[in-house]
Structure formats: C-alpha cells, structure tokens
Amino acid sequence: MNKPLHEQSLKELSDALQSKQISSTELTESYLNRIESYNDALNAYTHINKEITLAQAKAADKTIANGNGHILTGIPLGHKDIFCTTNMPTTCSSKMLENFHATYNATVIERTQGIGMPTLGKLNMDEFAMGSANENSAWGRVANPWNQNHCPGGSSGGSAAAVAARIAPAATGTDTGGSIRQPAAFTGITGIKPTYGRISRYGMIAFASSLDQAGPMTQSAYDAAMLLNTMCGQDPNDSTSSNIAVPDFTAGINDSIEGVKIGLPEEYFLKGLDPECDLKIQDAIKLLQKKGAKIIPIHLENLKYAIPTYYLLAPIECASNLARFDGVHYGYREENISNITDMYELSRENSFGDEVKRRILIGTFASSGSYSAEYYQKALQAKSVIRNDYRKAFSEVDVILTPTTTSTAFETANKALTPQEMYLSDIYTVTVNLAGLPAISIPVGFAKNGLPVGAQLISNRFCEDIILRIAHCFQSETGWHTQYSDDFK
Amino acid sequence: MQIVAGIEIHIQLTTKTKAFSSSPIGFGGLPNERASEIDMGMPGTLPVVNKEMLKQAIMLGSYLNADVSQLISFARKHYFYPDLPKGYQITQDDNPILKGGYLTYEVNGEIKKCYIHHAHLEEDAGKSVHGYKANTSGVDLNRAGQPLLEIVTEPCLHSIEDIIAFLKRLHSIVTYLEICDGNMQEGSFRCDVNVSLRENESAPLGTRVELKNMNSFKFIQKALEFEIDRQHDCIESGTPIIQETRQYNEATNKTESMRGKETSEDYRYFKDPDLPSIWINESFIEKAKSGLPEHPETRLAHYLSLGLSKIDSNNIAYNKHMGNYFSVLTKNKIPAKTASNWLLGPISELANKHGLIFSNLPISAEQVAELLQALQDGIVSSKMAKEVLGYMWSENKSAATIIEDRGLKQLSSEEDIMPILLNIIQNNPKQTEEYRNGKDKLFGFFVGQAMKETKGQANPEVLNTLLKKALND
Amino acid sequence: MSKLNTQDQQICEEIVTQIATLAKLRLTNEESEIYQAYFTELLTLFHELDTLDISYDLISDNTLLNADDCREDMPSTIDLSGIKNASPHFNEKTRYFDVPQFIEYDDE
C-alpha cells in the first residue's frame, strides 16, 4: 500500500492490520506524530497521553497476534471530550470539569476500547456541546483545517478538524441539533447521527437528553458504517436505548440505488441558502439521478417552527442536566467561600461560559411557573407536528436530501453573528433531532472560497442503511471525501 | 370549628436495591459506601427503573382499593440542596402509579374511610451531618436514591383521633405487607400533616399549615394538639394564619415556623427524558398481586368467628407473623382461645423483652404447638408451661426435651399425689383440725403446701379433688 | 416579527433577577444587561410558535418500556476506588463530601 497511513480508510487500515502489514503500534505512533506536528495550529485535541495510547496499541497487537481481533482492532480513535473515560480527564471543554476524572467509562468508550481501538486523545468541543463554531471552548477555539481563519463548526469541532486534517483516522462526536453533521459539512468529512436510541448515552455527558445522540465522524460512509457496527446496540444502563436489532451496516452498502426515491423539500431550498452551496448540492442531486435515484419534490411545511422549538426544548433539558454541577460532589468549586449559597452561585457563575449560562437561563425560564405552560407546551406540540411532517414525507419517499448548512464555515474574527443568527444557521439540522431520525452529511464539493460544502440525507427511524448506501454510492463516483488540505500533507 | 386535615406519608420500600440504580440498600455502615456513580449523579450517568418497587406499589394499591395506572411516567423536580446530587429529584407528576382508593380504619368503634388522592414513587435524598468539623457539613449519599412511595390522602380527616387511627392502620398494613419496616424513628414511615380550620363543613377552607418532623404517633398527636390550639387562637384574635411549613419541636412541645424555607418553590416539573413511560400490563399486575398474603380483614373475620374478642382478633390479624403462628397452632388442634392467650400473653412478653418480632423468634410455631399440646394433655400445668417456654426460648430445645430433662411433668395421678397430701395433713394437725371444724379458708393453706412439696407440679384440679377427699375423710 | 409587548419586556427584566436565582447563577451587572437584550430577541423568536395550528390529531410515537423489562432487584457491588480523582471534596478520612456548613445545629 503506497498511500500514506493517514490517507487510508478504516477498511484499508483494517486489512493492513489483519494481514500484519502494519502493527497497531506503528499506526498509532504515526498518528501521534502527526498530532504533535499539527495539533497546535488546530487545537483539535485537548488531551493526549502517549503512554496510555501506546500501551493500548501494544495490547491490540497482542490480540491480533492471538487471532482474537475484531475487524477494527488496532485502529486508533479520537473521542469527543464528552465521553467519560477513566484513563483521561473528561472536561466537556468547560472550566467546570477541568481535571475531572470519571470513575467509569462511557459505553461508547467500553465498546471501542473493548475491541482494542486505542484512544488517541480527547477532542475539543463547544462547552457542554452548546455551540455551532467550537468558539465556546474553555480551552480555546478550534481552527478549520481548510482555512484557519474559519471555524470547523460545532459542537464536535475538534472531532471534525482532527479527521479533516487526518490527525485521526476517525473520531466520535455527538449531535443534539446538528453537532456532528454541521462540522462534518464545514470540514469536508462524513458524519452520521444515527436514530435516537441506537447508541447508548451512558457516560456521554448530557446536554438535551431526548435529542443527544453519539455518532462516528469519518473519511467515508463505509468507514462510518464500520464504526456504527461497533458503537450501536442496546445498553441496559440506558433506558432510552432501543432494542431494535442492529444490522451489519456494511452489508448491502454496495447495492444499487436504482429506484430509490429521494425527496427534496421545497422549503429547504429557498432564500437564506448560500447560492454556492446550492450549486454543489444540485450537482450532487444530478449525479444521484444518473445512478438511478428518483427525485421527488416534497413539502416539510413546518420547518419554520424548527428553531423556536429546538431553542426552547433543548435549553429546558440542558438547564436541568446542568443542575448537578453545583460544586458539591465534583467539578469546579469556588475557593474562599464561607456559605452554601455563595458556593452554588459563584462556582457556577465563574466556571460556565457565556453560551452555557444563556441556555441555562433560557431553559430555567421556559420551564418555570406560568411561562412553562405557554412556551414549553407549544414547543412540545410543534415537535409532534414536525415529526408528523416527516412521517407523511416518508410515505412518499425513501430518503430526504437537504443542504446540511446555510453557508460554508463561519469566519472567526468576524464574530458578526449574534447568538440568534447562529441559532438560525442550524435550521437544516435541528428538525432531525426533534424527530429522532438518522441523518448523514457528506462532502459534495467546494465553494469558490475554498471551503467545503456538505449535503444531508435523512431517512426514517432505524433506516440508516439506505442513507449509507446512497452516500457510499455517491462517494464511489466522486472524490470529495478523499480530499484534505495541503497544509496537512 | 371543623378541622380539615390531609396527610402525605412517605414510606421507604423494602426493595434490595435503590429506585434507579442497583446499589444495595442497607443500614449503618460507612458514609457513602452504598453510593454508586449513579447515586452521586456523576455526569453521564442514567437512571434505570427498579421492577420490584413497581410490584410493591401495586401490592399496596390492592390494600388501598386504588387504581393501578397502567401507563406511568417519571418527572424531575428541581431544587438545589447538597443532599440532592443531581439538582433534581426523580419523582412522578402526571401519571402516578396509584390513583384514588381508600383505607378503612376504626375509631371509637366506628368504621370509617379515608380517601386516597394518589400514591407515587420517588427517590429519597441523602443525609448530612453538620459541624462535625469547623464550619463544615458532611454529605452522605447512602440514602440517596432509595425508593419511596408517597401516599397522599384527600383532606378528609376531621379529628386528631381520626388522623392517628388512620395512620396507625396504614402503618400496620404497610408493615403487614412487608413493603416497609415501619420504623418511624429511623424515617421509614414519615408523616407530613396538612391541617386547617373552618367554621363548619360548608364554609370555605381555611389556610392550611404543613406539619413536619414528627417521628412517632405520640408526637403527631402532640403536634396536632398544639397546632390546632394555635390556629384557634389566631382565628379568635383575628391574626391571619400564614400558609407555611412548621416543624414539631419535641423539647418545647410546640410547632415552629421553619426559618428560611420558601413557602412556594418553583420546582419546574417536566417529564424525565432519561426514562420512557412504562407500560404495566395486566399480567404484571396479576403477578404482583399473587404475592399478596391473606388479607388481615379475612383473618380478622375468621378469628371473630372462632369466638376471639374483637381486640384480640384485631391484634393477631394485623400482625402477619403472629397470625401465621396462630394458623399453625389451630391446625395442630390447639383451641383458639388458648392459642391467642399464649401468643398475645407470654410469647409477646418474651418477644418485647428481647426486642424481637414474630418473624424472628427463637422458637417456631410448631414448637409452640408441641408445648401447648402438652398443656392440653395435662402433662404440664399452666404455670409450669410458662416456665418451660422460658427454657425453650433460651436453650433452643423442644418442649418434650425440657419437660423430660428437668422433670417438670405434672403430677396427676392419685398414687403420686395422695401420699404427699396425707403427709401434709399429718404434719399439720392444728390446721387440719380447724379445717374439719369449719374453717374453709384453710383449704388454700393446704393447696399452698402441696404445691410447695410438689414444686408446683401438682395438677391443680386433681390436687383439689384429692385434697378435699383427704381432708374430709 | 412583532415588537415585544410590555408583558414580554417585564419578563425580560424579571428573568434576569428571579431566574438567575433559581438557576443559581450570580450574574454581574454587565451580564444582566447583555442577557436582557438577548432575551428580548429570543422571546421574539418564541412568538413564532403563536401561529402553530394543531387542530388535527397527531399520533404519539413515544416508545414505551414494559414493566417486565425493568431492572431486576439484584444488588451490584460498588467500586468507587477512583472517587478522589472525580471528587476533590470527598474527605477520605470521614468519607463525607465536605461542604460549607449549611445548617447551624446538628440535625441528621
């Protein structure tokens, strides 16, 4: 294999490891070296521990030698710093959890480490998963590998940047309103949020419990399918995890997409979408048509309620989930305090970032007293309406195709976007979380500014196979997903 | 003036693990030794519902004639307190497990009903100690997450006697079902009473006050007596009654305003997104109910039909294990009255003395049956039987063995007794003379002497008959 | 977008004081002002839900958990050997979590 290791897909690496062409130690070392060279510019990783990682690689090599290896054994993985790990700190990029060492591993960690995938390190994110640009991190912003003056998206910005710069062969991310898909689109990689309930949330620090879902961020749809096979599965520790059987997501991925009905919701292609993004997406649509897919216009009328609904429901759950950060049992505690009220109020005030505080306040407000009936109930109703829209649509089509984002990656220095504008940019991704559906973002080209453009495929619950199949078909015909910035070659 | 009272009772269920984590439930031990990462609310942890607490709630529902909700859900109740690690308590709001129902209780000979509004499941908070180190409080989460069932009555109790009688009846059924150990001192059965006064039953409700911190029926009574007087005085003097929570102070025998407690907290209830709604199907309910013991009222009716007094019947019926002893005794042909006398008398005395209850006595029902059979057969006298019981209790031997080893068999034959009587008569000529001359009272003297001589083993009836014969010869 | 009515304006001022207390955040004066402006925007956003029409029936597709599938009542062992790494305020000697004293008398 002449391709450098960091350009190889998970499938290629797996073959190489299984056939003993390379060892996990070699592979992991090469990635650790790349991290050393490139991480400073990106600030993708916030925690590295070479000793631990290499020890895991060594153990993986032993497993492979004994013939007990799994198909992904030995391939190192970066983890968003939202998954609890016992061997490395878990901070959610917040001062509140600086130096927090969990006493247990998240199920996602158990499953991946459990099959011998060494942990490359913990990846930067927006604080407590709240943000769309990875600007809200206590450990500094993350840069987009394509243009370091632009953000990589958020909240899984570190995960996206690491994969995009090829300083991780793949990474885990989480998605509550688009936090896997949007950064994937901004950095030109593939990211999938599976159906709500596919992947256990145990050990994944909660933001909005009914919307959060973990997912793989990879170079390709096939790689994502391989990782999904390991990450998915019911967990008795997570009562919201589904008992629907997990298929082999790689089986059938090569099947033709002849006759597949792809719905294009009119509402998603109106003004507000950057024309360059629109152009690239239209090209992608044409290609899929050439491969046999049928394009059908559909309506998702209630898109306009998406943002107010999401920005009501998510903060309510977030304010509740973050109530446990009170300085009593773990986490940041303000020093030199003499009474309990000061301890609560100052510990929280002085360790949470602005965006987190904003959402806690809005969530507390929307769930309290008389306001609750008016706003919260309306939002719950809107959620049902949005789900219903999708239900209707899937009776006519197999998948829905939309842009992932309204533009290419935001410029950092600008900071022209108000919080509200930032929220509005999530319009294409949040409805998917509200309906609990699976969705993938794949790169479909570049805008004139050199930044990647992503398209999103959404399918019905538990139908990840079809969006993976279409994505894989597209990627078999195009090379967008193999491209990465020259700065990292 | 009419008293209007409603009560919220929190009972600690006797499951082996906590409500939402599989941490063991126990007593004492080191602080935080039964606190897992879930109980501590560590970030990323999630609750998982305990099946057994659903069953125990359903069992109580049966005794409360309540509807079991087949669709239940859990909610978060938010407030900040050091012993509440998640910053919210998992409880039930919209869909509690039990709805409606009533419990009959007896007060002053009258049978009454107390109506239940609902009962819901929730998790307990931890505990704290204060000032154990300078200016420091210590939080112990052993209790955090333990399952509680909160029973809320309608405001349908109108006298202190009703309140106490109802609570005692509720206490006896939850302990009867063994879903709660009933230890009020340790907080297994907590009562918060909401009480107000109004002109009469058609007048609008008065301002209600919540009373807390009464850990015995005696204190509940005293607290209510004080509070009702206090409210009376307020009304008479025109002072408005503030809606508040007051705690009972044992030392002063008064209820006191709880300083610093907000009267209305905004708990921001909403459905817990980590727990799906639960569907309780018919077969689950049936299975839970199949674990129900014989109902105390059924036993009560049975005992009354056997001729036991109302009080005795009640006492045995509502003590499940004592009732189980009673069943074994009557099955072994021990007369009901004898069985009940012994259970409520000597055996209960010994149990109380040693701080034991009928589920953990050192003697089994079969062993008691054997003893009482010996009594029936005249092998031992009543007095001797009590002695034998004592030996059985401490030595863990059967009645037969003890009677044999210690030679405690009752003397019942003429050959055994008559010689002794004749001896006594011979040795006490004066008394014999006086008796034969008409001093009947001296009969007791001879009985006493005979008992002394036989070490109490003489069969009293036989003794009486033979003594009369001997003296009148 | 409709202008904020007086009720909403009042809400914005209240939010920052009352709600911050409820959320246990001690905001600075500067933050209070910034957040008030922020909430003004956000409430306008929420009012977009006013046009929501839900006069038709919606099927609920919330997943249910069967009581039979709930957790069996079997205790598991607790291993908190790493507690000190997670909780700097766990007192290893007394095994309490130490906090500033919050009740004056000892009352367990």
Describe the 3D structure.
The complex is a heterotrimer of chains A (489), B (473) and C (108). Chain A has helices at 10-18, 24-42, 50-65, 107-114, 157-164, 181-187, 221-231, 275-290, 306-321, 340-351, 354-366, 369-394, 419-424, 427-435, 464-477, and strands at 45-47, 77-80, 119-123, 171-175, 190-193, 213-218, 261-265, 294-298, 399-403, 439-446, 452-459. Chain A is an alpha/beta fold and 489 residues long. Chain A has a domain at 5-259 and 467-488: Amidase signature (AS) domain (Amidase signature (AS) enzymes), CATH 3.90.1300.10. Chain A has an eleven-stranded mixed sheet with strand order 1-3-2-4-6-5-10-11-9-7-8, sandwiched between helices. The two termini of chain A are 17 Å apart. In chain A, 64% of the residues are buried. The model of chain A has no long low-confidence stretch (mean pLDDT 94). In chain B, strands 1, 2, 6, 7, 8, 11, 12, 13, 14 and 15 form a ten-stranded mixed sheet that branches. In chain B, α14 packs across α15 (460-471). Chain C has a domain at 6-50. Helix content of chain C is 36%, strand content 6%. Chain C has helices at 6-22, 29-46, 83-86, and strands at 64-66, 97-100. In chain C, α1 crosses α2 (29-46). In chain C, 25% of the residues are buried. Chains A and C meet through α9, α10, α11, α12 and α13 of A and α1, α2, α3 and β2 of C. β10 of chain B pairs antiparallel with β2 of chain C, so a sheet runs across the interface.
Highlighted features:
heterotrimer; B: 473 residues; alpha+beta; Arc Repressor Mutant, subunit A; 3 domains; 10-stranded mixed sheet; 3-stranded antiparallel sheet; 15 helices; 39% helix; 19% strand; C: 108 residues; mainly alpha; 3 helices; 2 strands; flat
